[in-house]
Amino acid sequence: MEIKGVLFDKDGTLLEFHQMWLKVSQGVVAALLTRYPTQVEVTATALLEAIGVYGERVDNYGLLASNPVEDTSKKWFDMLAPQCDFVAFNHEVKGLFNQQVEQMPELIQTLPGIKSTLINLKQKGFKLGIATADTKDATLYSLEQAGIIELFDFIGYSDGDIEPKPAPALMEAFCQHCDLHAAEVVMLGDTVSDMKFGINSGARSVGVLTGTASQEELASHAELVLDSVAEFTPCLLKSA
């Protein structure tokens, strides 16, 4: 079936991931340890490793790389045992993540060649969308700062009101909004979760190596693995 829509993950696919989210997660952890001192010692290292951050490396299968903030909040809630309910704690963690993103706008950068690729796809008539595990506020702020928000017909995020990737809910929302079928869509992302999302949705899946996953990790789940979204053209799928 002819490709009519392209759905993208955000961080690690369109925007630089590593420095941005390492610094953001480190900042959130520092704030939490100040606000929630515990009787049982919980270190910054332990909190970061619990979401897949090991020094300067982010695990492709960890919560920071692939999951919505709610999952990170739940892991930290269990570790810190704060004197509040999970709803309040989750709201605070989301606020801290959004605050850290807004405090470091200089780290929000499109990966090389991304904007021109998006413009080219848009000019050729493709419907473009975002499907991210990030929150609404951080997603919209990042895309605005990167200067690419106006290029998207659909922006989907994981803010607790829709089932996150790899469930197909965000694909279904994109298709409904743009009057497409999933088989007419290709999903581009940098994680195994992104590839499984495309498969679960009935779409095509293309992996990129600008984020957390390796060629080997992506290859068994993707039709193609590219160095970057900047290399992508829908005609590549004809020979996949």
UniProtKB/TrEMBL annotation:
Question: Which pathway, per its entry?
Answer: Organic acid metabolism; glycolate biosynthesis; glycolate from 2-phosphoglycolate: step 1/1
Where in this chain does the entry annotate a coiled-coil region? none
| InterPro entries named in the record | HAD-like_hydrolase_sf (IPR050155), HAD-like_sf (IPR036412), HAD-SF_hydro_IA (IPR006439), HAD_sf (IPR023214), PGP-like_dom2 (IPR023198)
Q: Which reaction does it catalyse?
A: 2-phosphoglycolate + H2O = glycolate + phosphate
Entry's Gene3D superfamilies? HAD superfamily/HAD-like (3.40.50.1000), Putative phosphatase, domain 2 (1.10.150.240)
GO molecular function terms here? hydrolase activity
The UniProt keyword set, sorted, is: Hydrolase
Signal peptide interval: none
Q: Which Pfam families match?
A: Hydrolase
| EC numbers | 3.1.3.18
Q: Which PANTHER family match?
A: PHOSPHOGLYCOLATE PHOSPHATASE
Family as reported in the entry's similarity comment: Belongs to the HAD-like hydrolase superfamily. CbbY/CbbZ/Gph/YieH family.
Q: Which protein are we looking at?
A: phosphoglycolate phosphatase
List the source organism: Photobacterium rosenbergii
> The organism's lineage?
Bacteria, Pseudomonadati, Pseudomonadota, Gammaproteobacteria, Vibrionales
